[in-house]
Amino acid sequence: MAGHGKVSSVLDCLQGALEIARLFRASGYVLDKSEMKRLLAELVGSISEAKMELSILQGNVEDKDAELIRLNEILTYKGNMRRRGDAYYRTLDNKPYGQPYCSYCWERDNQQYHLHNRILSKEVRVCPHCKNEFQAARTPYFEADKLAV
Question: Which residue pairs, CB below 8 angstroms and at least 24 apart, start in 10-15?
């Protein structure tokens, strides 16, 4: 295995198969049985290696596609998120609304986690992911004026 899922390694494998096919043709298709078996085995080996490299390459492309989709979602949300107090909120007409999101998780990992009230205390909100605590007065819930849900 030469390149582990790179286009150049696939091309190298296919170039090797092409060279074997040229040897076959140059011999005038007249070879003894053992030589023919050897060339066919090399040809099959080159083609199977190319197929394996292509499957690795396809996995890499799928991973990149998933990452691009995730980054596109982040960019979409970034334009729709606004900080107010100690939390981030979605916006409607450039005004924050709804449940507060953890500012630490959003700024660090671009992940949205709603803040929850701590049990037996409505003055403190907690992020379920990073466990940071926020004052409820600085992370209120905003009703949306025109939101039709």
Answer: 10/50, 10/53, 10/54, 10/57, 13/46, 13/47, 13/49, 13/50, 13/53, 14/46, 14/47, 14/50
The separation between CA 103 and the C-alpha centre of its own chain, rounded to angstroms, equals 23
State if pTM tops 0.70.
no
Produce one character per residue of 111-125: b if its CB has 16 or more CB atoms within 10 Å, e if not: bbbebeeeeeeeebb
What number of CA atoms fall less than 13 Å from residue 144's CA on the CB side?
15
Distance between CA atoms of residues 138 and 125, nearest Å: 10
d(CA 141, CA 125): 11
Confidence of residue 7 (pLDDT cuts 50, 70, 90): confident
pLDDT at 74: 77
Q: Are 90 and 81 in contact (CB under 8 A)?
A: yes
- pLDDT for 147 beyond 60: no
19-23: average pLDDT:
84
Report the residue count for the chain. Answer: 149
Position of tokens 């170039």?
15
Is residue 112 within 8 A of residue 99, CB to CB? The reply is no
